[in-house]
Amino acid sequence: MAEPIRVVVTGAAGQIAYSLLYMIARGEVFGKDQPLILHLLDIPPMVGVLEGVVMELADCALPLLREVVPTTDPAVAFKDVSAAFLVGAMPRKEGMERKDLLSANVKIFKAQGQALDKYARKDVKVLVVGNPANTNAVVCSFYAPSIPRENFSAMTRLDQNRATAQIAAKAKVPISDVKNVIIWGNHSSTQFPDASHAVVTVGNTEKPAVEAVGDAEFLKSSFVETVQKRGAAVIAARKMSSAMSAAKAACDHMHDWWNGTAPGQYVSMGVISDGSYDAPKDVIYSFPVEIKNKQWKIVQGLSLDDFAKSKMAVTGKELLEEKNEAMAVCNAD
Ligand SMILES: NC(=O)C1=CN([C@@H]2O[C@H](COP(=O)(O)OP(=O)(O)OC[C@H]3O[C@@H](n4cnc5c(N)ncnc54)[C@H](O)[C@@H]3O)[C@@H](O)[C@H]2O)C=CC1
Ligand SMILES: O=C(O)CCC(=O)C(=O)O
């Protein structure tokens, strides 16, 4: 069996981590023959809760889990990690936009970028979940200059999963028969969920989603709005933000980054923008990517109509504004 790898989850005493840790420790992300040492980071007031999480992980009796390291010290948490799930941050409450969290959360990601730079492996794969995820990821990368920018990503996989589920329900097919739905831009209400390149298997035939769904207007209106506002809808219903689905999406994201995407299939990830599709450069923008040998590549050459271009411009502009605001907060520190 392989040597254990070290994986850190921040916000380890929180609600997303409560689902996420079990999935990682079961082998659903890094494989069923990859032993793990889990580093759990939270803040001092949560030490008691963290102890309970450690007890429960032990009580799960998971063969791949070789060691658990609970800590409030970033130097311990990030030491030699191969993968980092940066979940720890304040979640929004009803009536807030995700960017309202910016000034509180961005400082966490500055400090964690600095700690990653100092203590983590240089090939660490970093997934930022804590909101505003794209902007936190850009900040984290900025403060970790010794780690390639390509190693920082933000989670839009939950949006992709939500969009895929909407299309599967509308086309009346199992979720596994829908692929290549794209999330462009920011993990916010300006994101653009795009089904125009998605493919649905009906019977034994692959069809464009627009044909399988049979309702082009739906794909441009209520589909887009439902996905954009799904996080808020869950908060309104649960009085807490999405957790089980967020944990599942984090596993999907890291799983595909680690293991690669199937031929002809792409997934959406917030990654450093090179200006593809006229997105602003140097923000973390969600693109469709293909992954091989743990390296993502933005899918090129997809056609965009004026509707798509206008939506993508709005979300790109928001990301630039968020980045400027975040850097101002960091510089004021
Ligand atoms: N990108 C996405 O699709 C999604 C993002 N989120 C975001 O994930 C974040 C976490 O959500 P939940 O787990 O529901 O929140 P939660 O409040 O249940 O847990 C957050 C945990 O982070 C800890 N924490 C705070 N500051 C920390 C620091 N400096 N270092 C380490 N830990 C720290 C808290 O003590 C708490 O235990 C929120 O910002 C939420 O908005 C949630 C769902 C989806
Ligand atoms: O919507 C939020 O602010 C919290 C959780 C989240 O990001 C989501 O459910 O998409």
**Strand order, sheet with most strands:** 3-2-1-4-5-6
* Strand/helix succession: EHEHEHEHEHEHEEEEEHHHHHEEEH
Please identify, by name, the CATH architecture of the largest domain.
Alpha-Beta Complex
Count, helices:
12
Bound ligands, each once: 1,4-dihydronicotinamide adenine dinucleotide, 2-oxoglutaric acid
CATH superfamily name of the largest domain? Lactate dehydrogenase/glycoside hydrolase, family 4, C-terminal
Largest sheet: 6 strands, parallel
Amino-to-carboxy terminus distance:
46 Å
Number of domains: 2
The averaged pLDDT comes out at 96
> How big a fraction of the residues is strand?
15-25%
Count of distinct strands? 14
Helical amount: 40-55%
Provide the gyration radius in Å.
Answer: 19 Å
Uncertain segments of ≥5 residues (pLDDT<50)? none
Q: Report the CATH topology name of the largest domain.
A: L-2-Hydroxyisocaproate Dehydrogenase, Chain A, domain 2
Q: What is the level 1 CATH name of the largest domain?
A: Alpha Beta
Shape: globular
Q: Report the structural category.
A: alpha/beta
Question: Would you give an account of this structure?
Answer:
The protein has 333 residues and is α/β, with parallel strands linked by helices. The protein contains twelve helices and 14 strands. The protein has two domains: 5-154, Rossmann fold (3-Layer(aba) Sandwich), CATH 3.40.50.720; 156-322, L-2-Hydroxyisocaproate Dehydrogenase, Chain A, domain 2, CATH 3.90.110. The protein has helices spanning 15-26, 47-59, 74-77, 102-119, 133-142, 157-171, 209-213, 216-220, 222-228, 230-238, 244-259, 306-332, and strands spanning 5-10, 36-41, 65-71, 83-86, 125-128, 152-154, 178-179, 182-184, 192-194, 199-202, 205-208, 267-272, 284-292, 295-298. It has a six-stranded parallel sheet with strand order 3-2-1-4-5-6. Strands 7-10-11 form a three-stranded antiparallel sheet. α1 (15-26) links the parallel β1 and β2. The model has no long low-confidence stretch (mean pLDDT 96). The structure holds 1,4-dihydronicotinamide adenine dinucleotide and 2-oxoglutaric acid. Belongs to the LDH/MDH superfamily. MDH type 2 family.
